Amino acid sequence: MSGAVAFAAVLGLTNAPDTESPSLAGDFSSPPVVVWERTLPGSPVSAARHTELGAPLIHGDQIWVGSAGSNALYVLNRYSGLLEFQYASKGPVQSAPVVVGDRVLFADAAGYTWCYLIGAEKEDWKHYGGAPVLSSPAVADDVVFVSNVGNTVYALGQEDGVLQWRHQQEADQNRKSRMELYGAPPPVIHGDEVLAGFHDGAVVGLSRTSGERLWQRRVGEGRYPDLIGAPVVREGDIIVAGFSEPLASLNVETQNMRWRLEAGGIHAAVVTDEAVFHGGTDGTLRAIDGETGSPRWKWESPGGGSLTQPVVTDAGLLVASAIDGLYLIDDASGEQLWHLDPGYTLAGISAPVATSGRQAVIVTNAGRIMSLVVPQEGADWARNQANFPEGLHE
Questions:
Q1: 337 close to 315: Cβ distance less than 8 angstroms
Q2: To 5 degrees, how large is the angle CA 357–CA 267–CA 314?
Q3: How does DSSP assign 293-323, residue by residue?
């Protein structure tokens, strides 16, 4: 039995992954297993160590993902990982695309924002913003909002890509380190405002219509105060983290700080009715009371690498480490339930995990994309352990 067919048998699927598309409907009610893995399309990155930041997007029967080694947004078959189509860009696509109706919008590390009609070989429009873009655009009311690593946020018309307004954040002359981190959070739409974060540690409220700065509050502290993770609105608060520290909650009306923790991050926190979950740059996943900021539990990754934004599933929290792979953590207790080690020298995961139905898709820093699926009820996983690639499970 071939590996592909063996995987299909484990999952209760009637077809091998690279033939007719099976259904992946269902939920993440138990730990997943590896179904397929492939090298990302494009040229390999010739470096002893590199980072893949491009979060995959599961869209229908496809996975849309970029690669650090090439200039394109790739469209892969969701069930096999085989390349189906690609959208050309000027630089590597290092964030997830956004699909709006019959269009896909994405940005690249050369500083361009792109709009394609889905399936078109030529772009509908493109816009050059002057600096690399490493985060997804935000779209609201036919306007596309973009943040780049040059401390700039701008608004473009969705139909034509014409610049509507531009905000340039002034440099902080009191910053302890003159070296800024390579990144910028995506803009966040909140009512009539665009929430943006900058290298000086400031979270800023901009007018959606004019880009005028309505308010500003410096949050980030330490050697690297940079805000890389997106601010998150929780009821009447904004939760945001500096790279070094802190993780803080601000009142959305007054911008007064309600609570703070000495923890930094490069990804947004996740807010639920039960808690605020945050993966830190110190390798610690924290569950926090959103009202008081009191820690409920914390889980420390063995390798201590920076953590991705956790994904809430029925089985627990999926969180990845930039050093040592993917983990499933119980959201009530913080207990580690499962660990996936990609098994390569560049085994870490820096890009956020994508989930849909019973499937999770991860991109490793070794330039590999992997599909994990929760087995259907009745599938005998243990009996088929021999069918799994060595080093891919624990």
A1: yes
A2: 30
A3: --EEEEEE-SS-PPB---EEETTEEEEEETT
Which residues lie closer than 8 Å to 228 by C-beta, 6 or more apart? Answer: 181, 183, 184, 185, 197, 243, 265, 266, 267
What pLDDT digit, counting tens, does each position of 281-291 carry?
999 999 999 99
On the question of pLDDT at 318 being above 50, the answer is yes
Gap between the Cα atoms of 273 and 263, Å rounded: 22
pLDDT-based confidence at 14, cuts 50/70/90? very low
Per-residue model confidence as pLDDT tens digits over 48-72: 567 899 999 999 999 999 999 999 9
Question: 216-249 burial by CB neighbour count: b if 16+ within 10 A, else e?
Answer: ebbbbbbebbbbbbbbbbeeebbbbbbbbbbbbb
69 backbone φψ class: left, alpha, beta (φ>0; ψ -120 to 50): alpha
pLDDT confidence bin for 377, thresholds 50/70/90:
low
pLDDT of residue 9: 32
Per-residue confidence (pLDDT) for residue 15, from 0 to 100:
32
Q: How far out from the chain centre does Cα 77 lie? A: 20
Pairwise CA distance, residues 385 & 326, whole Å: 19
d(CA 179, CA 261): 24
The set of residues, in sequence order, having a beta carbon less than 8 Å from that of 116 and lying 6+ positions away, is 87, 103, 104, 122, 123, 124
Task: Say if CB 314 and CB 307 are below 8 A apart.
Answer: no
DSSP string across 129-159: -SS---S--EEETTEEEEEETTTEEEEEETT
User: What is the β-pairing status of strands 276-279 and 270-271?
Assistant: antiparallel
- Per-residue pLDDT at 31: 81
Q: Is the pTM of this model over 0.85?
A: yes
The Cα 100–Cα 137 span in angstroms is 11
- In the chain, what's the furthest Cα-to-Cα distance? 64
